[in-house]
Design brief:
By secondary structure, this protein is an alpha/beta fold. It is built from eleven helices and twelve strands. 43% of the residues lie in helices and 19% in strands.
């Protein structure tokens, strides 16, 4: 596009600065806040002008932000899509305007020629890692699981559920007895866990909680304690993200395992965009980040100390 041409005509001079629009979902979790912080930091370090729009969890706000970025003629767009469906029209408009779109951390159901690349983890695999941990932890014992799902219709909520179910299938001693959305937030996680505990007569027969993110787990841990049970022992807690707060809970013995999702999706996204905008280098369609399991054996206090100043 325009930047590539401009860059070519100034060959030899300093890099032309890029203007990139970022449509962020909101700030529902510690992980999301870190992704926002790190995206700003990465942009600043690279001399990119970042136009930031917080959608407050609403897809219509994201669509408006994308249209405004297109109207302003930005060089590229980063999109963290709140839900998976409903993106075709606006992505077609970006394509028409020759503005590359990079998806961050969540996927869309649209055809993959409507975006340049997607940076994210294998979300099904994350759920499988969490489920396999539980399978190993309970052995042959009967285990009733309650599940806190992420935002309804979001790719992580759909895929993390599938992955976990894959992992426990064939293990008849483990079953999900209740499953509801907690919207990826601490407040909702606590509230829904309270209702699970109430519905299960106080929670004595709940063996484990699987939360689609750490924030919901942290909220639920509070609910479990208030119900007079010991999280991490009476009710095992496994979740996803690996934010500092869950390591504090693990260090206190109140959470058992988490699967790491890097909040620095912007680094690989800017690398891919830089190459594309300079000389048209096509990135792979999916740039996959790692999913590492942490348990109480991994010195959670030390991990907390390492992570606490990293933008969360
Ligand atoms: O899309 C990634 C998920 O969104 C994170 O796991 C969660 O914390 C966030 O809100």
């Amino acid at each position: 596009g325009a930047t590539a041409l401009a860059a070519a005509s100034f060959a030899g001079s300093a890099a032309i600065s890029q203007t990139i629009g970022f449509s962020q979902i909101g700030s529902e979790s510690g992980w999301r806040a870190a992704e926002t912080t790190l995206t700003h930091q990465e942009a600043e370090a690279r001399g990119i002008e970042l136009k930031f729009a917080d959608a407050q969890q609403k897809q219509e706000n994201q669509i408006k932000a994308l249209r405004s970025f297109i109207a302003q003629g930005v060089d590229a767009i980063l999109l963290a899509p709140v839900v998976a469906t409903g993106w075709d029209s606006v992505l077609e408009e970006a394509k028409e305007a020759e503005i590359p779109v990079v998806l961050l951390d969540r996927m869309v159901d649209s055809s993959d020629d409507l975006y340049l690349t997607a940076v994210g983890s294998d979300l099904v695999h994350e759920g499988e890692v969490a489920g396999e941990w539980l399978v190993g932890a309970v052995g042959d014992e009967q285990c009733n699981v309650v599940e806190l799902q992420g935002t309804t219709g979001s790719s992580p909520a759909i895929d993390r559920k599938t992955g976990f179910e894959n992992a426990i299938s064939g293990h008849d001693n483990i079953s999900i007895i209740r499953s509801q959305t907690g919207d990826f937030t601490r407040t909702k996680g606590k509230e829904v866990m309270e209702s699970f505990l109430k519905a299960e007569g106080g929670g004595e027969n709940i063996c484990a909680l699987y939360a689609h993110n750490d924030d919901m787990a942290v909220g639920a841990i509070q609910a479990i304690k208030e119900a007079g049970l010991q999280p991490g022992e009476d009710i095992l807690v496994v979740s996803i993200d690996a934010v500092p707060d869950i390591f504090q809970a693990m260090a206190a013995g109140e959470a058992n395992a988490t699967v790491e999702l890097t909040p620095n999706m912007a680094g690989p996204a800017f690398d891919a965009l830089d190459a594309y905008l300079k000389d048209g280098t096509m990135p792979e369609k999916f740039i996959q980040t790692e999913s590492k399991l942490y348990t109480q054996d991994d010195d959670p206090q030390a991990v907390y100390e390492q992570k606490k100043d990293l933008g969360y």
